Amino acid sequence: MARLATILARGGSKGVPGKNIRMIAGRPLIAHTVAHAQDAGLFDAVVVSSDAGDILEAGKAAGATHLVRRPDEMASDQAGKLPGLRHCVAEMEAQLGLTFDTITDLQPTSPTRIADDIAGAIALQARLGVSNVISGTEAKSSPYFNLVEEQSDGAVALSKPPADNVVRRQDAPRCFDLNGSIYVWRRDALMEGDGLWFADTHLFEMPAERSVDIDTETDFAFAEFLMSR
């Protein structure tokens, strides 16, 4: 079973400039994710893919085993993640002369996850044999009770009205916020599939304190606070 860990880190962040190499808890942000991958002890290779030289250098210094330069057209504000991820996998397979069975993509802006989260998501995918496993945390708001959508006339309505026999939030289906932290893919689903969602997509649940996704300065400050504790 050949496993690849990918860490895709685009340069040019708008919400938190330079966030992927900004120092947090004593090391660059991306270094925490490299350490999580290495600490999991499950990967044949840990690769950082980026369009930015300083991010690649930080990834190498943190212990990434391989680096991939991402084409500029796959690193714009409008570019989706999947083309960059597929490019990274193809480059690594060409470099190493092997075909990976699973790819675990780790978001570099999730510094509060731990190696056990990665191992748990991989174990879930392996046990079920599903196309992919994504990570998330229980949602604070439910589309059945307090998550609303704006209508064309400006009014709001529940995103998903509950069935007549559901009168308590506790009786509605559990809902989750995707935290973006971990994606475990079966290779064929990633390289040949059409998007993130499959009929057999499963979720690996993580606690809220390990689900921080840094996208704003407030997120960064909150992550620093949690990591200091």
From TrEMBL:
An annotated Gene Ontology molecular function: N-acylneuraminate cytidylyltransferase activity
Enzyme class name: transferase
Pfam family, one: CTP_transf_3
UniProt superkingdom: Bacteria
Keywords per UniProt: Nucleotidyltransferase, Transferase
Keyword tRNA processing recorded: no
Enzyme Commission no: 2.7.7.43
PANTHER family the record matches: HAD SUPERFAMILY MEMBERS CMAS AND KDSC, N-ACYLNEURAMINATE CYTIDYLYLTRANSFERASE-RELATED
Official protein name in the record: Legionaminic acid cytidylyltransferase
Protein source organism: Candidatus Phaeomarinibacter ectocarpi
